[in-house]
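Hi, here's the filled form for the chain we discussed.

Project: internal
Contact: R.S.
Residues: 192
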Amino acid sequence: MTVMTATEFPPAGSGPLTVRDLEGLPDDGRRYELIDGVLMMSPAQGRRHQKIALRLGSRLEAACPAEFDVLAAPFAIHPGGAVELQPDVLVGRDSDFTDKDLPAAPVLAVEVLSPSTAIHDLNTKKAVYERIGTASYWVIDPEEPAVTVFELDDTGRYTQTAKAAGGEPLEVTRPFPVRLVPNDLLGRLADP
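And the returned structure, exactly as it came back:
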């Protein structure tokens, strides 16, 4: 594939994009995702967002059993040729990973909201994670801070199963037991 500049990507009349088309995008610090052939771009995130993702990843890593692995963005999930997702934090079965991607649904995907991504995280991406069978989907609002947990029910639909804000503890068992306090995810950035 020919490398294209940002002004000519995607080429006019090229139709829906594929995961392979993403290889031609610049390494410019933005996160590029593909949902059903439609390119989505996210700018670099702010300090609160990054602090939460880092601290959450660390907490999950500390509790993670050997059959799973925890990774932070950017790392690609490729459940099909027209979808590439890069959640802020993900947990997958160790046996499902390749060196470059996760070609299966993660067992947990976490998105930290930001003004530029909140609508997609709460709607579009949530629907895609549900469709591909991601058992748990967490959304973190860095402003409260608050963690909302969605889990697939018996019909394959997400149901909100827990929410904790501020100093409230959150204890989950899926994909493995872990205890979190939203304020603790901000570290020194938490309001006194």
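Let me know if anything looks off before we file it.
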